[in-house]
Design goal:
Bound molecules: flavin-adenine dinucleotide
CATH architecture of the largest domain: Up-down Bundle
Radius of gyration: 26 Å
Number of domains: 3
Strand order of the largest sheet: 6-5-8-3-4-7
Strand content: 15-25%
CATH topology of the largest domain: Four Helix Bundle (Hemerythrin (Met), subunit A)
Length: 440
């Protein structure tokens, strides 16, 4: 979906309920009470649309990229939390239902009963917890999968609580047509969960893979190859990633995102380059060939397909080389004659993957491979240092670079430095695509 269409859709879904309330029920209460209601309505609609921004919908992240999608998800979740937290404190008047003969239209009292108050209070506490546990996820003593389950279930419970609160206590949400708008949005959020946790696993059952090889290819880095058991496997574009599940049921939450490092034209096999960091990635040495695997995808927009460019700049830090390999391998197969420069940073030479294959490709096509090592051995005769602004400007500071397309993948610090350096060189932001291998 085009980013402009996505933006219009987002605004319509999140601002729509407030607009309906304003049109259908002209404000007659004090400004502060209308603001309190408005914040509550906005928080609920943002919360509901968050389900579609979970990174699992290619219609959303395919054009804007997974990084922008997840940043948006985080930023909007924090905005919704602030709105929700302020919502009860702004009201001026009597919260609970009382007989107030002179206030027949409820302009000074809000008619909360104990059930509506309880669901509102519980949702208020849970929203705070949901956002804080997401911000400090890495500090929590839980596995990523446990956190993900708690995050998804927590969000679903909050939606249930807020829906009850809005329908029973909401001055506007409790009446048609707004009450029906909430029914529609809640149903949409429920559908996204059903699609991700039931629909797609069912589809994965029909497209099984098996591990065909696993081998160590560099320091703490592995190559894992899977092969489709039937047909050619899931089609993808060079540079995209999938959620990979190895050895578990397709309904399992044990799945991790990895970029496909092989070329789409490689047929039924797909290769991954995986760095050891945690539970799954450190268990690859125990993985045997023939183990069943499933993939969900492809996702992401770190691709050159369909994009006009005089040349292709690829900047990879460490295992960020994975999507670049796919792009370079496909360019090689397509006999793409556009010039390309791969700038590939590592700490030491033992971390470089496929050094020989990259050297061969650079002899056979207009590809220049520039290795940069931050802790080189004494006999290293290549570049040394980090992938900072100076190195990037030195390698790509030539005339016409503004018409090149750049793909960036690696640690967040490297990506930020590369983005600023390229923009200073005159490369338009629209020609720079980047992917961090982590969500925050
Ligand atoms: C779009 C994308 C593409 C990636 N491509 C590659 C690649 O080609 N090669 C590579 O080595 N690494 C890649 N990564 C990183 C890789 O996903 C993590 O290193 C891996 O999931 C760690 O899993 P673990 O069980 O070993 O470690 P854990 O200790 O479970 O997790 C370590 C960290 O990895 C991240 N992570 C773990 N599980 C998930 C999940 N299901 N969804 C999202 N993030 C998760 C979290 O930030 C977590 O804190 C990519 C990440 C993303 C977001």
């Amino acid at each position: 979906m085009h980013p402009a269409i996505l933006a219009v859709l987002y605004i319509a879904l999140t601002a729509g309920p407030i607009a309906i309330a304003a049109i259908e029920f002209p404000a007659r209460r004090s400004m502060i009470n209308e603001l309190a209601s408005g914040l509550g309505l906005a928080a609920f609609s943002i919360l509901l649309v968050e389900f579609a921004l979970s990174g699992r919908f290619q219609a959303v992240s395919g054009k804007i990229g997974i990084d922008v999608t997840m940043r948006f998800h985080q930023l909007l979740a924090r905005t919704a939390a602030v709105f929700a937290l302020l919502h009860p404190f702004l009201y001026r008047g009597h919260l609970f239902r009382r007989e107030r003969p002179w206030d027949t239209q409820g302009l000074e009292s809000f008619g909360l009963d104990i059930a509506a108050f309880s669901t509102g209070l519980l949702a208020w506490i849970l929203i705070l917890l949901l956002v804080l546990t997401a911000i400090w996820r890495d500090q929590l003593p839980y596995r990523y999968e446990t956190w993900r389950l708690m995050h998804g279930l927590g969000a679903a419970v909050i939606v249930g609580l807020v829906a009850h609160h809005a329908w029973t206590a909401g001055r506007y949400s409790g009446q048609a047509p707004l009450s029906w708008v909430w029914v529609g949005l809640v149903a949409l959020a429920a559908l996204t969960l059903l699609a991700v946790y039931i629909g797609r696993p069912l589809r994965r059952l029909t497209r099984p893979y098996t591990v065909s090889s696993v081998r160590k290819i560099a320091d703490r880095t592995w190559e894992l190859v899977i092969a489709a058991k039937r047909g050619r496997g899931v089609p993808f574009t060079a540079g995209q990633f999938v959620w990979l599940n190895v050895g578990h049921s397709p309904f399992s939450l044990y799945e991790n995102p990895f970029s496909i490092a092989s070329a789409p034209d490689d047929g039924k096999t797909q290769a991954f380059v995986i760095k050891e960091v945690g539970d799954f990635t450190r268990s690859l040495d125990r993985l045997s060939t023939g183990t069943r695997a499933h993939i969900d995808g492809p996702y992401g927009n770190l691709t050159i397909k369909g994009r006009e460019a005089d040349g292709i700049g690829l900047i990879a830090g460490g295992v960020g080389i994975a999507p670049m390999l796919s792009v370079l391998r496909q360019m090689h197969k397509d006999s793409d004659t556009r010039p390309a420069i791969l700038l590939y940073g590592n700490r030491h030479r033992g971390q470089i993957v496929y050094e020989g294959e990259l050297a061969t490709m650079s002899r056979e096509r207009p590809l220049q491979v520039v290795h940069v090592l931050s802790e080189p051995a004494e006999d290293w005769d290549g570049r040394s240092g980090v992938l900072d602004s100076a190195t990037i400007k030195d390698v790509y500071g030539f005339d016409g670079v503004e018409r090149w397309l750049f793909l960036l993948c690696g640690p967040p610090g490297m990506i930020e430095a590369a983005e600023s350096a390229l923009i200073e060189l005159g490369v338009p932001a629209s020609r720079i695509l980047s992917e961090r291998f982590q969500y925050d």
